[in-house]
Amino acid sequence: MRAHPLLPVLLLSLAACSSPQAHSSVTEEFSVELPPGELGLVPLPAGAPAPDYSIAWRERHLLMESIENSLGYLAAPSSHQFFPYGPISHRRMQASLERFYELLTTATSAEDFRKQVIEEFEVWMARGSANSGEVLFTGYCRPLLHGAYEKGGPYQHPLYRLPNDLVKGANGEILGRQGPSGAIVPYYTAGEIRNQGHLEGQELLWLDSAFDAYIAVVQGSAVVELPGGERVEIGYAGNNGHPYVSVGKILVDENKIPKDLLSLTKMKQYFRDHPGELGPILDRNPRYVFFQESQGGPYGSLGQPVLPKRSVATDKDVFPRAGLIFCEVRLPEFSPSGDVLLQRPERFFTCDQDRGGAIRSAGRCDVFLGTGDRALARAGHVFAVGRLYYLFLKGLQS
Questions:
Q1: Hey, what's the torsion of the CAs at 249, 250, 254, 260, to 10 degrees?
Q2: Cα–Cα dist 333/66, whole Å
Q3: 19, 50, 143, 187: least surrounded by Cβ within 10 Å?
Q4: 145 CB-near residues (< 8 Å, 6+ apart)
């Protein structure tokens, strides 16, 4: 999905797999950034109910792979630069995941597991919106698109490789490009990239839809089906350093689609009915994502694979990388007939393994829901308030 920020699915924030019930005012309420240096977590207040740890034991086979991926990230020397997180050292984070994993394999029952976790772990909770503890959950996915390696026929809309002239800082931040005078200037906007041919010859693939190319850029990854049926995985390689502007929000603000009807389907239909507006509206979002072929993904911002419902994206400026998380939120599921999405309350363990371009607060969490059309449908209906808890091993302060 990406080796670095995978952009999430957010209605009115990214508007790729967007929820028809979402409102921009709600998104803004949960997107208020914390002051610099303030943590997104606080210890669970005394007497507050703890998560139902037995769920992790019952779903241990799904969770264990995700924990292994977090430990794989923490094994890399580069992970040390992001710790300590408040009182949580790198050693404590690693030990927390290792011990939780061990209990998943050695506990004799769900009740035995629950008791041991209560004895050995402490719980921190997300501050949420205005320190309420409430977190806005959205969903993201990896879309299945159609394209080719060569331009021709319906395949007219390129996705680009990471350009050679993109200048980065010592920590990987995007600085821009070298201008004619030698000074560093902002990199080309998405509109300039699409319309002015600056990256001609650096195309990775050509898609059959300009809007699908936009979806790929927003998502930061995709599976592309080639004309012969072969499928190619592409993932995030970098971005142009510009901020994101929501196309969905533009459509709502300019009364092109009512905000209570906004969805991916409605957006596609609008641009089919008004094809001349697609390019100018897409150009108002200056951010562009570059791609590379990948295998074994999708990948999150930790450089590890992300797993459906076992990986989430948060703001890594306020939440700790790789952490073990317990979520309480309503998620959409398909009915037995497969044609209706039902909202059901869920409580599940996952790991903090990704970040998104629009996830910038202690009140946001984006759940990865998989690849393909069904994942797209589910992700487009995740817009719910819930709670987010992190678990850390007791007794390790350094």
A1: -30
A2: 21
A3: 50
A4: 207, 209, 212, 215, 216, 222, 223, 224, 225
Backbone phi, then psi, for 198, in 5-degree steps?
Answer: -65, -25
Burial of 167 (0-12, 13-18, 19+ CB in 10 A): middle
Residue 72, SS3 per DSSP: helix
Residue 397: what residue type?
Q
* Contact status, residue 306 vs residue 353, Cβ threshold 8 Å: yes
Query: Residue 361: its pLDDT value, please?
Result: 82
3 state DSSP class of 346: strand
As given in the structure block, the two tokens for residue 65 are 């792979």
| Residue 19 · residue 259 · CB < 8 Å | no
d(CA 379, CA 385): 15
How is 268-334 classified by DSSP, letter by letter? HHHHHH-HHHHHHHHTT----EEEEE-SS--B-TTSSB--TTTEEE--TTTS-TT-EEEEEEEEEEE
The confidence score (pLDDT) of residue 378 equals 85
| Crossing angle (nearest 10°) for helices 60-74 and 90-106 | 150
Please give the domain boundaries of the chain with CATH numbers for all domains.
24-140+305-393 (2.40.40.10), 144-293 (2.40.240.50)
pTM: 0.80
Q: Is the dihedral of CA 101, 104, 107, 111 positive or negative?
A: positive
How many CA atoms lie within 13 Å of 249's alpha carbon, on the beta-carbon side?
17
Tokens linked to 240:
């142009």
Low-confidence ranges of the chain (pLDDT < 50): 1-23
